[in-house]
């Protein structure tokens, strides 16, 4: 139910000045207004001079950090931030979590929850050996488990996500994690995005019913069941409603990545981040045909053929995304020492029609190597062939 914005901000102020504050984030903007900064983050720190409230803001180009003393100085700084027309506030204390979203009509939608149990911690200092988007000691990892290597992968994935989403993003954000498995990424993504002050609804999809039950129970224990839900079904057919703005897929095996990309395109998702896993489909097709001259040496040795299949598969996936209205790039999202499957396909929907050169270079490549990418087959269902699609 909508609440009075003034009353909600008064409640936020009390939490921001509470000695039990652990972290707060303000982001987004209200309809018809623009804050002087795109994001603000507050947290307690301990300096040589004593405890301070650290306030880190960003204007979209550069960060600015200051440390204010508790009491009147902190109160003035907090009041200045509350006067900014932010669209979202996310505040955590040792006892409670509050999420505030300002609606288009200027009212407040507030979600309150008791804090989950966490190990006792002292306020951090300014010097840390490694900055994580989610601290490895965050209480969610006590619930969801995961090895140190898995946490590094997820943190790297979140960094790629942070670089993809605009700093001034506001409004509800619908997210789906396809092939979520044990939902490490699902829960971590929700934690990170909600910490940015976004109003997030996230759905995890996995084919196994036992995984759905397990992950649903975890969401309930974390107090997130209203915001994070799970469905059992295949990536290609699972019911997801409404269509998401952001599609995630971390290490969906072989053509499951193609199914994730195809669904994202059909949903016209605004952003897509997919880290492919094994690439058996095109490797099998390459074995069935001789390589075009003069490239026989690329595929004569089995290990080289497998690695070339990896490169060809992801290059064609990026090309198909461009043909279907996305700006796509393939980047390394984590060091190969953590996982050999360390490439990420990152795409943003532009809606632009494909150009003739884009369609021609894609078609020439598949014809030359006599392959049919699974993603092309999935996207071709009910659509015109690529050669007959409109040209920009």
UniProtKB/TrEMBL annotation:
GO terms for biological process: methylation. Gene3D superfamilies: Vaccinia Virus protein VP39. It comes from Micromonospora parathelypteridis. This is SAM-dependent methyltransferase. It comes from the Bacteria. GO terms for molecular function: methyltransferase activity. GO terms for cellular component: cytoplasm. Residues 150-285 form the Methyltransferase domain. The keyword Transferase applies. The keyword Transferase applies. Keywords: Methyltransferase, Transferase.
């Amino acid at each position: 139910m909508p609440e009075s914005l003034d009353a909600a901000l008064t409640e936020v102020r009390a939490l921001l000045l509470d000695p039990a504050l652990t972290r707060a984030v303000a982001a987004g903007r209200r309809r018809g207004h623009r804050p002087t900064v795109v994001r603000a983050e507050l947290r307690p720190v301990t300096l040589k001079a004593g405890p301070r409230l650290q306030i880190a803001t960003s204007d979209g180009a550069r960060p600015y950090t200051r440390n204010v003393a508790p009491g009147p100085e902190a109160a003035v700084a907090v009041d200045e931030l509350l006067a900014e027309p932010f669209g979202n506030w996310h505040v955590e204390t040792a006892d409670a979590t509050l999420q505030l979203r300002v609606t288009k009509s200027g009212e407040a939608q507030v979600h309150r929850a008791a804090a989950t149990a966490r190990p006792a911690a002292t306020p951090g200092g300014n010097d840390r050996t490694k900055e994580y988007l989610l601290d490895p000691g965050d209480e969610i990892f006590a619930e969801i488990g995961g090895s140190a290597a898995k946490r590094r992968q997820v943190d790297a994935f979140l960094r790629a996500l942070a670089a993809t989403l605009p700093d001034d993003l506001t409004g509800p954000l619908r997210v789906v994690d396809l092939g979520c498995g044990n939902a490490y990424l699902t829960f971590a993504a929700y934690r990170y995005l909600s910490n940015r002050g976004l109003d997030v609804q996230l759905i995890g999809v996995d084919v196994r019913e036992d995984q759905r039950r397990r992950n649903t129970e975890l969401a309930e224990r974390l107090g997130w069941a209203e915001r994070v839900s799970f469905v059992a079904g295949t990536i290609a057919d699972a019911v997801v409603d409404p269509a998401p703005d952001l599609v995630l897929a971390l290490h969906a095996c072989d053509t499951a990545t193609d199914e994730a990309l195809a669904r994202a395109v059909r949903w016209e998702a605004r952003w897509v981040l997919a880290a492919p896993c094994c690439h058996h489909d095109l490797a099998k097709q390459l074995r069935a045909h001789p390589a075009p001259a003069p490239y026989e040496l690329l595929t004569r040795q089995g290990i080289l053929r497998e690695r070339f299949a990896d490169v060809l598969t992801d290059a064609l996936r990026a090309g198909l995304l461009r043909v279907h209205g996305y700006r796509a790039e393939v980047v390394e999202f984590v060091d190969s020492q953590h996982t050999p499957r360390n490439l990420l396909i990152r795409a943003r929907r532009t809606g632009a029609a494909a150009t003739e050169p884009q369609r021609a270079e894609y078609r020439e490549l598949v014809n030359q190597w006599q392959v049919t990418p699974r993603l092309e087959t999935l996207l071709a269902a009910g659509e015109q062939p690529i050669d007959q699609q409109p040209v920009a």
